[in-house]
Amino acid sequence: MSNPPSPVILVVDDTPDNLVLASELLSPRYTVMVANSGVSALRLARQEPIPSLVLLDIRMPEMDGYEVCRQLKADPITKDISVIFLSAQSDAEDDVRGFEAGAVDYIAKPISPAILQARVAAHLTLKATADYLRDKSVFLANEVARRTQEVTAIQDVMILAMGSLAETRDNETGNHIRRTQLYVRALAEHLRQHPRFAAFLT
Hints:
Layout (H helix, E strand, L loop, with lengths): L7 E5 L3 H11 L4 E5 L2 H8 L7 E5 L7 H10 L7 E6 L4 H10 L3 E4 L4 H57 L1 H21 L3 H4 L4
Parallel strand pairs: 1-2, 1-3, 3-4, 4-5
């Protein structure tokens, strides 16, 4: 059995030495891509394989890390990527601004190898768990919809069968049940358009 592919990490920094250092520290365990600008980072982040995590420098020319993060979170393709900011200096205002942009953590420069590896591993675990729960939720929602359709179909068959059975015993009663079935179905179709009842009449 083949091993699952390693998580992809995108490192974004306009300083080549920082890109080399992060790549050397992370490449033994992960697939590492690098970008030296915000524009190239956005382009790489949208390509397969989609990164699981972005290590993003804040202070970059042309497009800073905050704007890169905001654009990642606004794009349906990249909105679920975890973003960790790399910052040489940080205060409370910078922290708030980063979290508001969508980041999950900060790592201070100069980079500590132990802290970098520990933070990356922790956030990849959190993301894997979140992805699993999100996929499970979608599966369960689809399963509920499918089962609801099955129950509705069974109910229709049962009502039709009851009408047919009654018709064999009493023609007038059978016709009445069938008419009632049609009235109820027409009423349900009408109520389905109302927001108050839409969730109950799928």
